[in-house]
Amino acid sequence: NSGVMSLLRPLLLDVVPTIQQTAALALGRLANYNDDLAEAVVKGDILPQLVCSLSEQNRFYKKAAAFVLRAVGKHSPQLAQAIVQCGALEMLVICLEDFDPGVKEAASWALGYIARHNSELSQAVVDAGAVPLLVLCIQEPEIALKRIAASTLSDISKHSPELAQTVVDAGAIAHLAQMILNPDAKLKRQVLSALSQIAKHSVDLAELVVEAEIFPVVLTCLKDSDEYVKKNGATLIREIAKHTPELSQLIVNAGGVAAVIDCIGSCRGTVRLPGIMMLGYVAAHSENLSMAVIVSKGIPPLCACLIEEPEDHIKAAAAWALGQVGRHTPEHARAVAVANVLPTLLAMYMDTRSSEDLQMKASIFTKKALKNILQKCTYLPALEPLLHDAPPNIMKHIVGQFSKVLPHDSKARRLFVTTGGLKKVQEIKAEPGSLLQEYINTINNCYPEEIVR
To answer: What pTM was estimated for this model as a whole?
Structure first.
């Protein structure tokens, strides 16, 4: 408001180098503060001046100028676009070849903040020739430079298969894969993130990541003391597992399912989410893969997530994963039912039906999971408690299972009477002619009339 921008601008051209740098730093800190101030830097016509002097000044000034560009570009795609339009990308890419690692780092950081907004801006960074130089940067000895360059490659790769492919074509995967075992946690986070952003797009890209021999090395990340390393490691495994049964099988063979299950058991909160989803994806592919999740004792930690986690989206993911495990055959459904999952799912469904949008989603996932498991479950002791609480849209699936099993199982028929199940079925109010009424009739027909009465 006090016209600081117009005062700082001439100082960028001062004859004293330290004044130039300090002016640039001041501008960067202002622009970093919020988008209005960043907007003022753009409107004050300061960017072209910075870009001009990026090429000829000393390393301290280059770092300060790159900081201003990063601070402006981080706020929105529009502000990042303003940086692209004043020709800054070419200058930043030249800085990636600078002798000083700090200049490279500052330039890489600015490029990452521009690329992360959307695929057009990311493409502009690629077209300026940044990718091969970023791949050279991740091979430099300085850890800070490696981190930022890996993070920028991740930001470029995330938008589309084509952009990820340009990163792959520059030879990034092999160098990233070698750093999975680096002791620096912040570097590992970025490396795992970059590999995930490449693998997520397609089967081909996922296979290229796998061919860099990341298994079983990547499984050590799931035991890391850093929560984000765990989370990003699980995310990488998830992004590979989701594509095909073959890739999932490869992960199972490497011990990946057991490692993810241990990881879910040992942590809390959102760190669990990618692991939960990974188990769901693996189980969804086939009966055998689902059985691998069951045999590796994957059901108890998923149940624990249903009960322990306060966040709806984590509960919903666990419900979805359990639904994928239980949906294949009666054997699969029984494994889930025996763990006492069904009453928990039902209670969750009844809970979430009543409320807002996020819970709306949780409710859909939970209902689908219940349906998936119920339609295959022939283990009646697990179904019977549900007869007391279920709403009509779930009740029809439960009663339906009884109507399939009871006609062929005399022991189950006897038990159903002694536990009060049959009495409960008589109390259900069903629409005449509805599917539910048909199921009830089928059950009643298994018994002599005087028992039913």
So the answer is: 0.90
Angle at 438 between CA 434 and CA 444, to 5 degrees: 140
User: Tokens 């994928």 sit at which residue?
Assistant: 324
User: Which two tokens mark 360?
Assistant: 């709306």
168 close to 179: Cβ distance less than 8 angstroms:
no
What would the two tokens of residue 416 be?
């159903």
Tens digits of residue pLDDT in 48-65: 888 887 777 788 889 998
Q: Residue 246: exposed, middle, or buried by beta-carbon count in 10 A (0-12, 13-18, 19+)?
A: exposed
Q: What is the pLDDT of residues 196-241, one digit of tens each?
A: 999 999 999 999 999 999 999 999 999 999 999 999 999 999 999 9
With CA atoms as reference, report the closest residue to 73 among 118, 104, 105: 118
Q: At what angle do helices 59-73 and 35-43 cross, to 10 degrees?
A: 120
Q: If 0-12 CB within 10 Å is exposed, 13-18 middle and 19+ buried, where does residue 182 land?
A: middle
Is the C-alpha dihedral spanning 96, 88, 72, 176 positive or negative? negative
Q: Give 31's contacts (C-beta < 8 A, 6+ positions apart).
A: 37, 38, 41, 68, 71, 72
Greatest mean pLDDT among 29-33, 69-73, 392-396 lies in 69-73
Cis peptide before 132 (omega within 30 of 0): no
- For residue 179, give both structure tokens: 């750093």
| Cα(31)–Cα(69) distance, integer angstroms | 9
User: H helices within 158-220, ranges in order?
Assistant: 161-169, 172-178, 185-199, 203-211
Question: Per-residue b/e over 295-308, b at no fewer than 16 CB within 10 Å?
Answer: ebebbebbbebbee
DSSP 5: H
Torsion angle of C-alpha atoms 241, 242, 244, 247, degrees rounded to 10: -10
CA distance 29 to 21: 12
- Looking at this protein, which amino acid is placed at residue 235? T
Find out whether 97 and 133 touch, Cβ atoms under 8 Å.
yes
Q: Which residue has the tokens 């988008």?
A: 35
- Contact call for residues 114 and 80 (beta carbons, < 8 A): yes
